[in-house]
Amino acid sequence: MVSSSVLGFPRIGMPCLPRRAPYIFHLTAFLPSRVGANREVKKAVEAYWGGKLSADELTKAAANVKKTSWTSIKAQGVDLVPSGDFSLYDHVLDHSAAFGVIPQRYLGHNLSPLDVYFAMGRGRQADGVDVPASEMKKWFDSNYHFVVPEFSETTDFKLVFNKAVEEFNEAKAAGVTTRPVVLGPISFLYLGKAAKGAAAGFKPISLLPKLIPVYKQLLADLKAAGAEWVQIDEPVLVLDAGLDYQSQFASTYAELAPVSSKIMLTTYYGRLDSNLSFVAKLPVAGLHIDLDRAPGQLDEVLAAIKSTHIVLSLGVVSGRNIWKNDFAASIKLGQKAIDVIGTDRVVIATSSSLLHTPVTLAAETKLTAEQKDWFSFALEKAREVAVIAAVLSGSQDAKVAEALEANRVSIAKRREFEATSDDAVRKRVAAITPEMWVRKSPFAVRREIQQKSLNLPKFATTTIGSFPQTKEIRAIRAKLTKGEVTVAEYDDFIKKEIESVVRFQEKIGLDLLVHGEPERNDMVQYFGERLKGFVFTQNGWVQSYGSRYVRPPIVVSDVSRDGPITTQWSSYAQSVTDKPMKGMLTGPVTILNWSFPRADVSREVQCQQLSLALRDEVIDLEKAGIKAVQVDEPALREGLPLRKADWKEYLGWSVSSFKLATAGVTDALQTHSHFCYSDFDDIFPSIQALDADVISIEASKSDLKLLNTFKQYGYSNQIGPGVYDIHSPRVPSEQEIKDRIASMLETLPADLVVINPDCGLKTRGWKETEASLVNLVNAARWARKTY
Ligand code: GLN
Ligand code: ZN
């Protein structure tokens, strides 16, 4: 028998399904009036933060969602249902809390354990307690953020509570015997960082001998509770860094295996590569590999484990995308494994946790039947896993045969659609030449021409694009969606908003103005909705961090632009002022990285299509009289592949895509770009190669060391390192900003420096925005006199 398994599930609760949905769940009846139809966990957690829900009620709400998840995954026919992957905020934070890895600054405030937990996740500023949140980082190459554990040589681990056992028992009580999920010790230490004040040269991995006994206890308890298998996640094994830990892997798992339930050592998001040589020798009962991201590794893995007893879990159903699985292809992979190691040693699984996919398609009422037939969300993927395993087990079940045939038809239809996509776009991509990536003249020449047309002062001040998205703006947009106001009424409102943002900037004396982006719901969604080739969901929420969820657009076909997208707003903004107005676009790489991409065409080609559409937009903006255009690429860095060997290829096409989008204009147009999380040390030549006239970077939280990199490489274009953090309502004093500018100028030449905040001001209120920007403008005036 081939078993089926799911590695983890979204944590948001089930959307309310339409009555005629094919699934029969026990739907959580939690807070229906306030919460609406979905994201119960988010809403419950936020209600708890807002004091509208007690800790007990929150626990109950969470229990309902967990129960619904377990029973519905099981109802799809999955044998190995995960537990322990649920979280109120983040699973890495759960792990830190369960092991007592709590930085001192969160203790001693007389907070309940739950409040200490949330304080670590999001900071706490109430009742005399004022602690910032712990650092968050991107979880591997996904858009999910985890809370970074902090370790030092004095860190002691103790099992404060055994979440794995508790949720195993909870699921059992709900009638589902699960396979608990535990983050592995080596990945846990790898993901952490040395706490401030840790000894010089301290490495978290040195704590392993102290950590192993606690894992032993955790695993022994799970075994005693009756868990047959445990899924231990060690995603560090798909990184180059995995190899550094080979001896630690050997010693750790030699200690854990004897006391534990059967260990399914789980890797995902990439290939094992050279790590396979030691992984295949570990004393584990099972190994899970990602065949969605790395189908090519199957042969070598089979060869390596053939003579062992290791059960191989084949991650054939993607946990990262939303496309229907091609059963024929998965069955082929499964059969190949069965031929080498036999049916009993094969498990069919999702490639990774389904954390990155929305919950269910059944809640989507606006997608066409044709579109819906292309996709599978988490619950549908659970069913896919079960069907593939059943087919490989030789099932004679009529329903399985029916599902197999239906999948064949769906996949064939999708292939047909792909083949007949937009010919004109494809021809245009094929005709791209390298000359199209390059500006007409080098930066030094452009700079003089731009200086004449823009006439900006030294230490020119500007902002990153958005201004506060007030309640009123969101309210009228909601009304527009519901048809309660006309497009003309809405446009009028937006124009007034733009005008007032322009007046504000004039009043306080900013130099290069922006229109404020009031018309945009989201920097990616806004463009996706106006380009051909995308579709959108109503309920396709995916956790980004904590209680923040995003609804990524889906690229379904060739991407193109019907006509100008932003020129009407930018021209309007320019028409009400004599100061130069900066156009504002989201870059091709960022649009792609924050969407679900197609699976049939490479990301490179999809990015080129986006670039061509944006190139036309930049050209149109210039034609409309706009003299500076910013093309934001905050997601360029985060899209870097996990293996260094793959960086060159990614950076090659992503850099050329940005250039393609921005190089179609005359020398007089000043191009800007913006980057959040500007950790550039290792990719600096690529940042330089973008050849943007001005880049602004999030920098206020860094110690400006990164500017040394700019200096070291002799960066010659203009640069605006953010002078204050906009992620907090705190107003920076004028002196603080002056000090910031002064320390920037220790490294950067004065004539290259532009003065701007860290990021867009969309999430801020007007009060602090006004006060902060006034200080920024005054500090720039001071700098003009001083340097
Ligand atoms: N132009 C965008 C804004 O201001 C940039 C957002 C960002 O910093 N990621 O909102
Ligand atoms: Zn930013």
From TrEMBL:
**Zinc as a keyword?**
yes
Q: Can you tell me which residues bind L-methionine? A: I464, G465, S466, E517, D632
Q: What is its EC number?
A: 2.1.1.14
Cofactor(s) recorded in Swiss-Prot or TrEMBL: Zn(2+)
Q: Which molecular function GO terms apply here?
A: 5-methyltetrahydropteroyltriglutamate-homocysteine S-methyltransferase activity; zinc ion binding
Keywords, alphabetical: Amino-acid biosynthesis, Metal-binding, Methionine biosynthesis, Methyltransferase, Transferase, Zinc
Q: Which residues bind Zn(2+)?
A: H674, C676, E698, C759
Cofactor binding comment, as recorded: Binds 2 Zn(2+) ions per subunit.
Q: Where is the Cobalamin-independent methionine synthase MetE C-terminal/archaeal domain?
A: 459-781
Query: Where on the tree of life does the source sit, at the highest rank?
Result: Eukaryota
Query: Which protein family is named in the record?
Result: Belongs to the vitamin-B12 independent methionine synthase family.
Q: Which PANTHER family match?
A: 5-METHYLTETRAHYDROPTEROYLTRIGLUTAMATE--HOMOCYSTEINE METHYLTRANSFERASE
The identity of this protein, by name, is: 5-methyltetrahydropteroyltriglutamate--homocysteine S-methyltransferase
Organism per entry: Antrodiella citrinella
